[in-house]
Each structure stands twice: as structure tokens, then as C-alpha cells.
Amino acid sequence: MNPHPSIEAQDRPARLTVGVVGAGRVGPALAASLQLAGHRPVAVSGVSDTSVRRAAELLPGVPLVTPAEVLARADLVLLTVPDDALADLVSGLAETGAVRPGQLLVHTSGRFGTAVLDPATRAGALPLALHPAMTFTGTSVDVQRLAGCPFGVTAPEELRMAAEALVIEMGGEPEWIVESARPLYHAALAIGANYLVTLVAQAMELLEKAGVRAPDRMLGPLLGAALDNALRSGDAALTGPVARGDAGTVAAHVAELRKHAPQAVAGYLAMARTTADRALAHGLLKPELAEELLDVLAGPAADGGATGPAASSGGQAPSDGPESERDGDRPTGHNGDEPTGPEPTDTGPPRPPSSGSPGSPGSESPDSGSPEPGPHGGDS
Predict the structure, then answer these.
(1) Stronger pLDDT, 380 or 42, i.e. the higher one
(2) Which of 148, 228, 240, 344 could anchor a disulfide with 370, C-beta 3.0 to 4.6 Å?
(3) Which of 94-98, 243-247, 349-353 has the lowest mean pLDDT?
(4) CA angle 164, 168, 172 (to 5 degrees)
(5) How far is CA 181 from its chain centroid?
(6) Do the Cβ atoms of 73 and 43 come closer than 8 Å?
């Protein structure tokens, strides 16, 4: 059942021509979803072989053109590029006069709201931030996954209904996020999805070391139940030796990891300290059992140094900032040449602007990142 029946016909966007700047994993899928809703994709920009191939598969017959030409042809433009490339792209497009008054300009970054589109807004564009909280593979399966997918929506109040209507037309569920809360919102998704992938992959590696022939089949039922329990019950779903205060078992884990997988020790200790904090706060870990456990967790790190303060003092391992789920073409130099190097690891920062601004029309970049579970995000 549609949970948003209040959107009236006059609030729905008219049939629009749609363009995509950055044919990564996200843009073509969203454009294909809009096509199913009756809108018409008319142009897409992409440089790498993967981008060209993806655009041809998801948007057959749609011409591949420069970013400036995309904006010239489309009423609604999807800017599906990595977070760090977005500001320069928008500035470049605005400075070169590519933005048309009344044009809907949509980015899919989880980190940013609409302020990053200010240069285009001053040129008359209508700014929308629509972030799908979903992993993207760059294939047709992504279009199906958008059914029921939550979108983080930020827009000027006068455009809110139109923004939410576009999300609903793509099959998604709009969730309003205020501008100032976007970085926190995106950090939450990164913790929940991106780091889950890291934990699962590491667990499978350790099971292989332990001689398990099919780690994925062993973990599947357990992880499925744990995820379901966590979504239903939050911290009450915590189980295992840390929540029980079983310091001897935790010490045995750490000793085995030091012996067989020293690179996993720091992550184990950091997650165990965080788990102990939450178990204590929610009354699951008995205080009288916590002291010995915290002593174990405050032991030497994998490199022989101290791990830092125990859970009771709030010590946690540092983590990287959230990675963008947009993985469209990253703008490069004035001539639009692609940087060299393997496509799946191209996540570095954009080059500084010059006379050929990274955001200038005609400049693009290869896709960044390989398909990964996570929002995205958001694998955007």
C-alpha cells in the first residue's frame, strides 16, 4: 500500500525529460526507474568503458553526450558523481552557463543537502537532494531494488512535495532529512552497511582459516537472525561472550587472533569495547563481570602497543568518514581524459580546479568503486 496518498496530482512532477551526469552505478538505475514512471531519459554522460556499457544496458538508445549537453537537453538532471567531486562539478556547470532557470537539478549524495547546489540555484535551478539508502550493482537488478527503498530527501520547503513525489515515482519511500543532519544521517548508513560488509568478510576469512569449507552457508542463517533481531529489538538482541561478561572466552579469542590473524585484533577489540559499553548501559552486562572483561579489552594491541582506554572510558578505535554511495564518473581535467589505474579503487579526492575546472562541461571521470553492499549507499 502506498503510504503517501496525500500527494495530489498537482504536486506530481509533469512528464519530464531526464539527463544523467555521471553514468556510475546509481544514475542510470534512477533514470531507468523514472522512465518506468513515464519520464523520458534523453541524455547521459560517461567516459569509462564501464560507464558506456552500463548506460547502453540500462538506458538503451539514450545518446552519450557531454555534461553541458545533458543539461541543455533535460528538464531533470541527475548529478550522480562521488561526494568529493560534486561541489566542483556544480560550480563548473554554473560558471559556464550550462544551468537553465527552472531546471530540476538532483544530486544523490548522502552527505550533502541542497547547499552544495547553491551555485546552480543562483543560476535559477531548482535544487533537490535525493539519496537512495540502497546498494547498487550497476545492473538492472538495481531498478527492482528501488521498490520500497528509503530515500533521504532534502529540498527547499516549496519543492518538498515535488521531491517526495519523484521518490515515490521511482518506487521509493521518502524520508525527510534536514540540511544540518545530512552528514550524521550518512555516517549512520555507513556504519550500518559499509562496515557490516567489512565484518562479514572478515568473519568468512577467519572461518576459512578454521577449516570451514563454506563460510557463507555457515554465516548466512546466523547473520540473518542477528540482523532481524537487531532491527526488531536493538541492544536487547546482544548475545555472546562480551554481553555475558565471559572474559576468559574473550581472552581466548584475542589470543587466537594474534596467532592466526593479527590484522583482525584491532577491529575485534574496538567492536568488543563498543559492545561492552552498550551492554553495560542497557543492563545486559553485569557490572561485577565487567571489570575483568574490560581488563582483557585494554590489553596490548596487535602491534604490541596499548589499545587505549577501556569501554567504560569511552575508548573506541578511530574510523574513516563515510564513503559516498554515488559512484558516477568523477570529473577530471579540462579535456575529459580518464585518470589511469584500476577503476574499482578510484576513490581519491578530485583534482583542484584550474582554467579547465573539474566541474566544467565536457569533463568527466571513471566510475569509482566496485559493487558493494551498503547504502551507497550509498553504493549512492
Answers:
(1) 42
(2) 344
(3) 349-353
(4) 105
(5) 15
(6) yes
Q: CA 24, 376, 116, 357: dihedral to nearest 10 degrees?
A: -30
pLDDT more than 90, % of the chain: 74
- Helix and strand totals (H; E) in the chain: 14, 7
> What pairs with residue 178 in β-bridges?
none
Counting every residue, how long is the chain? 380
User: HSE (CB half, 13 Å, CA atoms) of 89?
Assistant: 34
d(CA 281, CA 276): 8
C-alpha cell at 167: 521518490
What is each CA distance from 329 to 139, 182, 271, 343, in whole angstroms? 16, 22, 34, 10
Coil/strand/helix, residue 367: coil
How far apart CA 197 and CA 202 sit, in angstroms, is: 8
pLDDT score recorded for residue 345:
34
Question: Is 99 in contact with 71 (CB distance < 8 Å)?
Answer: yes
Is residue 103 within 8 A of residue 73, CB to CB? The reply is no
**pLDDT tens, 48-72?**
899 999 999 999 999 999 999 999 9
One-letter identity of residue 212: V
Report the DSSP beta bridge partners of residue 175: 152
Cell numbers linked to 351: 583534482
CA separation for the pair 214, 192 (Å, rounded): 25
Of the candidates 45, 49, 18, 22, which has an alpha carbon nearest to the alpha carbon of residue 32? 18
Structure-block grid coordinates of residue 234: 536493538
